[in-house]
Design goal:
Blueprint: H1 17-22, H2 64-83, H3 91-106, H4 117-120, H5 123-132, H6 135-139, H7 142-158, H8 164-176, H9 180-183, H10 190-205, H11 211-227, H12 232-246, H13 253-270, H14 300-309, H15 315-318, H16 326-333, H17 336-359, H18 380-391, H19 398-420, H20 431-434, H21 438-442, H22 451-454, H23 461-495, H24 497-500
Length: 507
């Protein structure tokens, strides 16, 4: 900024991007200041303007045939997820189901360690199940219906605001390029938290949403975090970022309301608003040196490394898109809508970082006897969005394209694995009271991601069809990348033709 001149009047100077991002938001017709982040060009971010979000899609829009094919893949993917038979409820999912049944049938509040907030929204399914005499089978559809609703709301919020091709690819990757398949088979609580918090943050922070949409978004966030109290720190990081970027203290009310809701549930169920189920929770002694201790007893640094890189639970292998350089891709392509994409991706990524910080020292950071990194299902949101952006990055170099290709291969294989082989668990990991369960967490041979390749189980006809569908999705995403890499390889060969010519070599 220029220094003040002698008469006390500052010379006019264009604002920097950082200053514009911190400028107070526009005012609504009623004269009140909108609770949104100022994004350059947000007012014009509709129609063709949104097409400049990423990947040059606005300059070369996808054809109608491409759009129809991608929507067909999305539809087929949802059908596959819907018709896949649900397994019998186990573990935490079964405990949540019994807690719901006890409340509705016996009007009794369960003393289970898990919140009743998420299961309560499955009450309509319980009534349908009573009518069909199979409540558990009907309630088992709950997470699939939540996921479907979340996809619909995401499409409503982002349609015509970001590039349509980017949005379609994002939705398709969530369906057929993420570990959601394993989580839709039971009544666990991670899907509820992922959908409510992830979609709620979108509704609450996008610059074009109205007042009531933003309020509804924050309500969803509060419910989702209260359903999984360990995510409170992650919410605190997101709120802190919003306070800093928008210079508003009002966001601090969100974690405050969440804490009050959690205390209210604890008071109703246990008679103590400060009751905690985490401190005394522990597991048995295994081959690992830090096992058998309750609460947050695992060494923090070892937990971070395990959560990020272990073969059986590491986010690098299960959500590889999380590690792709989305900010660089958005800067290369430019566009006003790209700022919006970066904004909500950043909020999602910060929430994931908060989850890593919390669970790194939790004795069961691996999520128990479950397929993949159970506690980090939320990571599929920023991971799939980053991968969708990188798939559209026409200016990316060969190494970046190779990284994107590797992420696509891992993501689609992980999605197929989670749905088709989600119940394949090497028994050696769970014999003798889980004494060798670390084999499933740290070694590739016993990792749920690779164990089916070591000893493939028999498949049903539906599972074979599902694998064929995932193969089509893999081809759809990987063939353009391979073509791009082939062109780049051809250019490199032409540029270094003299080096490759045998006549230019001497003894």
């Amino acid at each position: 900024m220029n220094p003040p001149v002698a008469d006390g009047i500052r010379e006019e100077e264009p604002e920097s991007p950082a200053e514009r991002s911190l400028r107070p938001g526009p005012r609504s017709e009623s004269g009140t200041e909108r609770d949104t982040e100022r994004v350059p060009g947000a007012e014009r971010n509709t129609g063709s303007e949104a097409g400049r979000a990423t990947g040059g899609a606005g300059r070369r829009p996808a054809g109608r045939t491409t759009a129809l094919l991608e929507w067909a893949l999305i539809g087929v993917g949802m059908v596959v997820l819907a018709v896949t038979p649900r397994k019998e409820m186990i573990g935490d999912g079964l405990a949540r189901y019994y807690a719901l049944v006890g409340l509705l049938e016996q009007q009794k509040l369960s003393d289970t360690a898990y919140s009743l907030i998420g299961p309560l929204f499955a009450t309509p399914l319980w009534f349908v199940g009573r009518w069909t005499d199979d409540t558990q089978a009907v309630v088992a559809q709950y997470n699939f219906l939540l996921f479907t609703l979340g996809l619909m709301v995401i499409h409503i919020l982002l349609h015509k605001r970001i590039d349509d091709r980017l949005l379609r690819r994002f939705l398709l990757l969530l369906i057929a390029g993420s570990m959601i398949g394993a989580h839709l088979q039971d009544f666990y609580g991670e899907v509820f938290t992922t959908v409510t918090v992830g979609v709620g943050l979108l509704a609450a922070t996008l610059p074009w949403t109205g007042r009531w949409t933003r309020i509804g978004g924050w309500v969803a966030v509060v419910l989702g975090v209260a359903n999984t109290p360990a995510t409170l720190l992650a919410l605190g990081l997101v709120v802190g970022l919003l306070c800093l970027r928008r210079r508003r203290l009002r966001y601090l009310a969100v974690p405050l309301v969440t804490v009050l809701l959690m205390m209210g549930e604890a008071w109703l169920r246990f008679g103590d608003p400060l009751h905690s189920v985490y401190l005394d929770n522990g597991g048995g002694r295994t081959v690992m040196p830090y096992s058998g201790e309750p609460g947050f007893s695992y060494p923090f640094l070892l937990g971070v490394v395990a959560i990020l890189f272990s073969f059986g639970r590491g986010l690098l292998w299960f959500t590889p898109g999380l590690f792709l350089p989305i900010r660089r891709r958005l800067r290369e392509e430019g566009g006003a809508a790209g700022d919006d994409v970066w904004s909500f991706w950043l909020l999602w990524a910060v929430f994931v970082a908060g989850l890593v910080l919390v669970y790194a020292s939790w004795w069961a950071w691996y999520g128990g006897m479950y397929w993949g990194p159970r506690f980090f299902l939320f990571a599929i949101l920023p991971a799939c969005l980053a991968l969708a952006v990188c798939l559209s990055a026409e200016r990316a170099g060969p190494w970046a394209n190779l990284a994107t290709l590797a992420a696509v291969l891992l993501s689609v294989w992980g999605a197929a694995n989670s749905l088709v082989y989600g119940q394949v668990r090497p028994l050696i990991c769970y014999d003798n009271n889980w004494y060798l369960e670390a084999l499933c967490h740290f070694t590739p041979e016993f990792s749920p991601l690779w164990a089916p390749l070591m000893e493939a189980p028999p498949l049903t006809g539906l599972q074979r069809l599902a694998l064929a569908g995932y193969a089509l999705v893999l081809l759809w995403f990987s063939v353009p990348l391979l073509a791009r890499l082939a062109r780049q390889a051809g250019t490199a060969v032409r540029d270094h033709r003299q080096l490759l010519g045998w006549r230019n070599w001497r003894w």
